[in-house]
Amino acid sequence: MKRKSPCLLLLVAAFLSACAPFVPHHRPRGISEERRVLLGGVEQTILLRGEDSSKPVLLFLYGGPGVPEMPLSYKNSDLERDFVIVQWDQRGAGKSYRPDIPDMRIDQFVQDTLELTRLLRTEFAQPSIYLVGHSWGSLIGALAVAREPRLFYAYVGISQLVNIAASEKELDLRSRATAQKEGDSRALRHLEEIGRYPYANHRDERRVNKIQKHLMGQVPNELSATHMFGLAVTSPYYSVGDYIKALRGVVFSGKALEREIYSANLFRRVPEIDVPVYFFEGRRDTVLSPVTAAHYCDELVAPRGKHLIWFENSNHWPQFEEPDKYRAMMRRVLVDTRAAD
Predict the structure, then answer these.
(1) 31 backbone dihedrals φ, ψ, rounded to 5°
(2) pTM value?
(3) Model confidence band, residue 333 (pLDDT cutoffs 50, 70, 90)
């Protein structure tokens, strides 16, 4: 996505942020608090929101890496009736960004997740919590629940990241098959020019992604760049300074974690998860192949149950593209796991 007039965008963000002030819950047992916590020796920012602090705790791990969903989380604030929602700007990202953050390694993010989980269990007197991971966050989430399942009631992977090589190969095959079926000679020509995965560079990867979106056609609820920007700048949780840090954090996190992310393989590293598992997949995801995620779900050993839930009208962000269904499915997870407890 090309960036246009960043100074103007920041001014617009400042104005709209000022027009959408933070609105706390006014409930006797509610919680609405942003705080700094020390995880793995690094101060990081969390936002806790819930209408009743005795409700189950849900920790949300965003995508990217380095793309915080804290500023967008107000769009699903209705779930704060059912959970205490914890949004976390991980090390090196968003409000937790610093240019000298150490230990930008996948294993450290997993350790940070487990450390934060223990803190939340203690504070809210909960034996376990719910863990939800989107995209990059789903990689960290799956590794965390596999390592210490006793800490979690259930795991929800949204647009589950399993193995990028397998995902890209499947998306490439799907693009070629669709182009052939549709008789789209131009798309086929461009795909042949780029060649098969692995691509020569990230530019070619982005070109293939663009072709995939073209071949997929208009996804009914897909978030355009303009829509995403609108959601972000009307957030009650982020200031202009926070967005500046977030932009720097995206670049910093991407560079630091790229090699590890591209070599990650949950087929090998996480063959079993001993908590109830739910995969929320956008049927028309062009970023991470939902077919690869479905294959992983098929192969995953999950003694306490596994569920693959399709979001038919979503690309990569079903929690925002089909928010009503997302909230309904999260409530189903709560009912299922509470009934089995």
Answers:
(1) -135, 135
(2) 0.89
(3) very high
